[in-house]
């Protein structure tokens, strides 16, 4: 009879093997994720390797995450919920994945993750039991901890006949990890792993909040320094362009690079491209606006995000062949603050979500 440690290791090995096979059956993984409420847009935003087809819940749909929060995903698997949480907590927050299987240790992260620091991700490997969940939460100051077993049948995630795991580059290994450990025929994985909903309350504290020490407090430091200095246009100049009867679709584009502070009014007709992710989207942005003569950027006051994004776009333009575009970057002087100070109440210039 195998020991408890053998059984736990067998379960972890099997889940890890599933991680190594991620992407082999994309339709199946997608169907499982959608069954738990993940949207098509969310799944498209993820690296394919993040969705292992092992979903047993959808925590980011109900967690109501806020900018600046620190998120710990216990049992993170391939990181699907960590990836979805990261843009919600932003550059001043942090999303961390903790998983019991050797998913991260044995499988390299995809290139678009390793090359993109703005994912704000960390991944940790280590076994997590129900008792340890309670200890972690108690040590962090949480009270009234409640773990609710969803009674999900997790045995459906691998074949009952024990298909061989892929552990070599050319052919399957000689036998299934469960068979290698001589597990009993009536072995039930649900005795060792489970799907839980976790509820806990953290009382308010009088202690001052410690500022999170992270290299991504200034998210733009992860990207190249702007080389160019796009010129500014005054609010009056931009308003004249908007109201000009000669203005066509390819003449100007106005770009709002705010994200969470986008509410409260914006230049009517402006597009929203958040500054935090703008650099990564430059190729697509260029394809859309390479024939737009004036691309005008703004943020709250156009002293930070707006000029920076305009500079990145102009640098990208300068790196292209001169005859490949007719576009140029500009900055709206004074940002939305100056714009609203002049034009609040003028419906052709100011709009609201």
From TrEMBL:
InterPro entries: Methyltranfer_dom (IPR025714), Rhodanese-like_dom (IPR001763), Rhodanese-like_dom_sf (IPR036873), SAM-dependent_MTases_sf (IPR029063)
Gene Ontology CC terms, in alphabetical order: cytoplasm; nucleus
GO MF terms held by the record: protein tyrosine phosphatase activity
Pfam families linked to this entry: Methyltransf_31, Rhodanese
SMART domains: RHOD
Domain Rhodanese: 248-348
Name recorded for this polypeptide: Rhodanese domain-containing protein
The species this protein was found in: Candolleomyces eurysporus
